[in-house]
Amino acid sequence: MRYATVVITPGEGGLNPADSVLVASPAVERDVVHQVNLLNDGTIVMLYGLRGDIDRAVEELRDCDSVIAVDGSGEGEGLIYLHIEPDETSLQLMEIIQDNEVVLQTPLECTRGGGLRVTIVGDDATIQRAVDEVPDGVGVSLEGIGDYHPEADKLYGTLTARQREVLETAVEKGYYEVPRRATHEDIAREVGLSAGTVGEHLRKVEGRVLSSLVRR
User: Fold this and answer.
1) What is the DSSP letter of 48?
2) 50, 59, 138, 139: which has the highest count of C-beta atoms within 10 A?
3) pTM recorded for the entire structure
4) Separation of first and last alpha carbons in the chain
């Protein structure tokens, strides 16, 4: 079994009209999409994880013509449920997953500029066909491909969005290289946190990894 991780990026805005509202909103920052499903009637339901003013974002989404229903919960960080009429692009993207024998791994990670980091699982030929079917006007950037190891992915999925962001930045900056090429302060400047908070996040991540190894 194989996996491919790609970032899909719209030409402008978001990947559907409601998503564009969230991308443009000063009230919230998109974090992840926990679930997304194409229903039998051709509409789409989504469950977002967001940071910011959830109630204000709900009100903004109610003004979007494509939104059938919306609800939210949380303060500072929370969830928004969306039921939408898809545009042509978002419908085509959902049909790629439905029509091909690939598994969409959730949560999907939201990126700056309205994109999504998506991991799909299947055989090489099916993954390639799914990537090739991404509609014109949507950018596709391949970030990784290889053998699928569900236990590692399951462990990564237990981390919070902030923990993943700090961990990925630490790896990119060379924090785990020998000799070490980055400090907590270097990472903190990249992610907008204090050095102490970065250290706390990394200790929690390392604790989960070590606990997982010991249990084996």
Assistant:
1) E
2) 50
3) 0.70
4) 22
